[in-house]
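Sample intake sheet
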Amino acid sequence: MQLIRGLHNLDRFKADLAAGCVLTIGNFDGVHLGHQQVLNKVHQQAEKLGIPSVVMIFEPLPIEFFTPKKAPVRLMNLREKLQAFAETEVDYVLCVRFNQKFAGLTAEEFIQQVLLDGLNVKDLVIGDDFCFGKGRTGNFELLQKAGDKHGFTVDDMRTYEMDAERVSSTRIRAALAREEMQNPDLDEAKRLLGKDFRFDGRVIHGQKLGRTIGFRTLNLNPKRIQMPVQGVFAVEVDGIADRPWPGVANLGLRPTVDGVRPSIEVHLFNWDKDLYGKHVGVTLEKFIRPEMKFNGIDALKKQIAEDAQKAKDFFNI
């Protein structure tokens, strides 16, 4: 998978796209089973036609640009999404900077400048509810008419369902936030994602309080404003050894000048090496309890010991 950073870099790939491409467009938050079905169809069409497959995504997401306060929490940040695409058979990911200029393109300008001039689209795989262009005036019917005129086909990608309900990022968020984050359903999220819920983060310096009470922790910056889940979990951490490493993690909130940001601390079992600056992956294996406030260090230390033991019992350590 190759990343194309912005429409302005498409000229560098003109030769690769000379014969055209098969394209899909969307947010792809979570790259869940429904998304994977779309990506598989795009790959199959591209192989059939002998041309590259391309996924167009946006940064920030359109809803984050237009109404940031109403934007749902992300299941994946950009880095995590690109890693997920790299595990598929997609040839190119075009990440478009969603700004005022791009938002101002009319539907007709988007078709001409992006689909035709920029990508030389031969086949477009899209949902029949897809809207685009300034004022969301572009729709599936307009794309079909443009395809008839300019020589590309438009395929309607039917939604993927489980239990007679659409698999969606919204449904996964609901599973992770079940009962107001008091009891996240990791099994349901895994069923819809097709894999365990995980996230990445860089190890940063924290207050180092854990060292003083016998529970050294990794403090992680997950590169996102919010996390879709909170609480204490048994986790496995990858990227630090030749195998996933077990531990216990607290995902909570920390006050800042502008409000709050995610606070993520991971205690690794039988680990004593510094990892500052390293990117690690954290997989949530089992929910232990909701986040809590404590009356003093002794109460905190006691609860952490109980949490750690529950995680060790889960891992049979």
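Comment: The longest strand covers residues 245-256. The chain has a mean pLDDT of 92.
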